[in-house]
Amino acid sequence: KAEWAKQAPMDCEERLIHQAEMTKAKNPSTRVFVYRNIVKALPWFSSVRHLLDDPAYSGFFLRFNPAGARETHVPRCAAENQTKCSVFYHDQEQTPQVPTPQSPHPDGACQTASAG
User: Fold this and answer.
1) How far apart are CA 50 and CA 42, in angstroms?
2) Can you give the pTM of this predicted structure?
């Protein structure tokens, strides 16, 4: 996480695939897989980020209630930039942290069009 979260855009998925390929190269009979959360759309996986940014797939993802109260149990906007908001539900669990005045050197920065 210390490395892929600092990339822009984040390249977690590519690094996981590369690690799986290296493992397989050492022992071709080894069964190797890359686990990705199937419930949450985590944007640090490039294949997920692509779908989040594609309007054709917008119906695949949960949205905040547009008619609901502006207050939600998770923030709609990024801690480091209150103008960077998303209509899609998201939480901060397992999320790389971004720079804020209170924490200037955390994990990384989200780089999706839907979060911009």
Assistant:
1) 11
2) 0.64
